[in-house]
Structures are given as structure tokens and as C-alpha cells.
Amino acid sequence: MTTIRFAVAAAVLVFGVTAGVLVTAQSATPTIVVYKTPTCGCCTKWVEHLQANGFTVVAQNRDDLAPIRAQHGIPQPLLSCHTALVGSYVVEGHVPAADVKKLPAERPAVKGIAVPGMPLASPGMEHPPPQRYDTLAFTADGKTTIFARH
User: Is the pTM of this model over 0.90?
Assistant: First the structure.
């Protein structure tokens, strides 16, 4: 009888620890791959913004981002200076880390999100005077909606 109690207690302990590890692993901030040109200072600042917000960033310097953007179907009007991939989503431009974190957490039915152009006050573009800007969600067929306002 004592052996059975010990086995049950050990199983509960192992399951509890394993479940805790799984929850922790699932809630961890995912890795994001950033494609940028090697000389762009604002892209480097955006990478630093992501890292400061808990992301593991794999930065890939490329002289030409057009093939990456074409491969991932980013609509021309949404382009900015860098492109990133997080999970199955595309992130274009100076998107705040809080918006990027929502993608794997909420799993919206979109291809990705973008901050078109290079608005002042967006992460990596912290220059006065600040501009209001939107993060746009886009679908595979190019339709856009407002994902967040800043």
C-alpha cells in the first residue's frame, strides 16, 4: 500500500512539474527572425526594442529584401524598411513589440501586421515630433484592417 501511495505521489509531482514547464514554455515570447539591410540604423533600433521586450531575435542582413517580401505576400502599400517572421505571421516595419506579441497569443486569421512607412515615434524611429500611426493587419488577398492605434 505504501508503494502505491509513493507511486501516485511521484506521478502527481512529475505531472505537476511537467505541466508547469509546458505552461512556461508556451507563454514564453517566441523567436522572431528579422530581415534587414546591414546599414539601416532604425532597423537595428527596432531589433533592440524587440530584445528589450523579451524577444529572442535572429537578425538576417540582406542587401535586397524584395524576394523575402514577395515570398511572404506583403502588399506594396504596406512596405517599410525591414521584414520579420514570427511563427506563421509576417511583420513589416516598425511594429511595436506589444502588437507583435499579440500574434501568437491571439492567433488572428491574418497573414501578418505592418506599420507602413517609417512614422516618427514608432519603435526604432523615436524622433520628434511624434506622429500618430496605426498597425495594420493584412490578409493573404491584401485586405487590411486596423490592428492597433498608436
Answer: no
> Cα separation of 51 and 62, whole Å?
20
pLDDT in tens, the chain (150 residues): 444 444 434 443 333 333 333 333 444 678 999 999 999 988 999 999 999 999 999 999 999 999 999 999 999 999 999 999 999 999 999 999 999 999 989 999 999 999 999 999 899 998 888 889 999 999 999 999 999 999
State which residues form the domain around 39: 33-149
Residues facing residue 108 across a β-bridge: none
Query: Would you say residue 26 lies in a domain?
Result: no
3 part of a folded domain: no
| 124, 94 contact by CB (below 8 A) | yes
Cα–Cα distance between 150 and 132 in angstroms, integer? 6
Domain tally, the chain? 1
Residue 147 CA: distances (Å) to CA of 104, 108, 124, 128 = 14, 10, 19, 24
